[in-house]
Amino acid sequence: MIIHALKANRTFTIDYDNDMFRMDGKPFRYISGSIHYSRIPSYYWKDRLQKMKAAGLNAVQVYVPWNFHEMEENELNFEGDKDLVGFIKQAQEVDLFVVLRAGPYICGEWDFGGFPPYILAKNPNTIFRTMDSTYIKYVDKWLDVLYPMLKPLLYINGGPVLMVQIENEYGSYFACDYDYLRYLREKALAYLGQEVILITTDGSGDGYLKCGNLEGVYATVDFGVTMDPKKAFQPQRDWEPKGPLVNSEFYTGWLDHWGFKHSTTGLDIVAKSLDVLLAYGANINMYMFEGGTNFGYWNGANYPAFLPVPTSYDYDGPLTEAGDVTDKYLALRQVISKYVKTPPMPIPANTPKMAYGKIEMKFAGTVQDLLDKLRKPNQKPVTATYPVYMQAFGQYQGYALYRHIFKQDYPTAQNLSVVGIRDRGYVMIDQVPVGLVIRERIHNLSLSITAKKGQTLDILVENQGHINFGSGINNNTKGIIQNVTIGTTILTDWEMYPVSPELFEPSTDTFKSTGTPYYSKDGRFMSPSIYVGQMPTLTDPQDTYLDPTTWSKGQTIIRSNMAYNIGRYWPIAGPQIRLFVPKPYLAPNTVNNVIMFELEMAPCKTQAGCTVEFKDKPLINATAHGPYHKYMSQEIGYKYNWHSFH
């Protein structure tokens, strides 16, 4: 037996001879679930943790997304919904241990796999997850902040953290840079102490463990439902002949992509497989136990086909996106009760949900009308001869407007080519929409246009989420990343404006607007525009769901005393229709403004008639228009069989 810790009478060790963990010398097995504090308002952390404890779990597994705490260089935030230490302490209060996945890479269908995009502003050619000098410089600074915060929280120091994972599924990455893994190991040990147990997690296959495994770090695996635990764990045994069996990601469900059917995994097969694995003596973490929500712009995107993840990260988990108990939860709780001696605590009640009905939405202005209100005060546009990628001018998420003034007439139709679009570009001439250019859709990277000298070409670009998986995390710039041409002419002299709808603050003048958007000749598109409505005054707000069924695509913000970016809506694509609006995002006894940044087409063409409705039930398994896959087969131009790790 190798002793990893002997401090203050608290020890957590690996007993290799007996294939188990030991806590304070006694045999220990953890049954845990994944939730992500970054996807759940801090107001609800205790509720979710209590429901995990009530299911019979004794641990929670959690990622630390670097960019959630440091989106801007040197601007660190560990407060409120970002209070990592507070979350860990709440887990301890509920009597749950913690398995911490510290990164710096997490994947998790999270924007950029947790990396801050400012690194791309420093060097767009950075090779992430290697000893690349730019990358390591910023990883080093980040871990110098993170690890000192974590050390007092280790179990051996009186906290709940049992183990710390370095990197994540590194064996699935092309680089196979052992020097990088050794650097992460030594960095962790230097700050956390030689006694800490470090782990890795990789897919259950020799090919994954070959590059993900590292001496001095305990290798664990991940896999979904199985009836053959010996076969499933064999790759771990090949690399760790002795020690506890650990499945760090036992999949209770699966992720979604816009335009594809909602993923589900039957409760019977999940419960039966969990029973088999627990009977086999394994340590299990259920991924996910509650998925939560990709609020704002935090969703990632898959690769090699660019497939962004929806706002909902429900994952068909035992707890819903809103933290409600499901039949799957009850089935897994019953299985766990066979292996846990102490009876679980009573299950906390589900949180109330309210249907607040329809509210009228009023046109406030086009993106061009409101450009000054959609960026920070005194934030001037960036000017350059050629288009500049978004990260280079500090727009790390969301939207940007690229503007060019035509220097000559184009009286006959010419191809306007935007081959470097990342990810979705709304093209307008003097605010009138002329079409849409889309990443991954090769036959829709150019538009036939005519134009006159002095007219304004605007391209509003949506960053739909940075790629979070595979080699696609490199070259992960956004905006317009190559020259724009008309015919054979390269268009030069551009202005670039950050566009952040969450900065828009309605005023009394907002509701006096008498304007309307501009519409394309074919009637398919309108100029991207802001619409604003007001919820009825709420004395005791509750969770609710915003239903944008009649809208097309865009972003929703709830603003009262502060702005809450609820996330992206895209009902024409699905599978998610309704957006979860949690109670703490609604202010009592004051005005809650609802802001819709509609990119394609609002449900009304006049000042009257646009509404949005708040309902009391989710809808994440449908499309507003037409069958599954039809939209994406038209949108992308092909069907793609995807697979992703976490």
UniProtKB/TrEMBL annotation:
InterPro entries: B-gal_1-like (IPR026283), BetaGal1-like_ABD1 (IPR048912), BetaGal_gal-bd (IPR048913), Galactose-bd-like_sf (IPR008979), GH (IPR017853), Gly_Hdrlase_35_cat (IPR031330), Glyco_hydro_35_CS (IPR019801), Glycoside_Hdrlase_35 (IPR001944). Transmembrane segments: none annotated. It catalyses: Hydrolysis of terminal non-reducing beta-D-galactose residues in beta-D-galactosides. The active site is at residues 169, 249. The keyword Cell cycle does not apply. GO terms for biological process: carbohydrate metabolic process. Residues 21-338 form the Glycoside hydrolase 35 catalytic domain. It is an enzyme of class 3 (hydrolase). One of its GO terms (molecular function) is beta-galactosidase activity. Keywords: Glycoprotein, Glycosidase, Hydrolase, Signal. SUPFAM superfamilies: (Trans)glycosidases, Galactose-binding domain-like. It comes from the Eukaryota. Residues 534-588 form the Beta-galactosidase galactose-binding domain. Its EC number is 3.2.1.23. The keyword Metal-binding does not apply. Residues 387-499 form the Beta-galactosidase 1-like first all-beta domain. Signal peptide: none annotated. Belongs to the glycosyl hydrolase 35 family. This is Beta-galactosidase. It comes from Mytilus edulis.
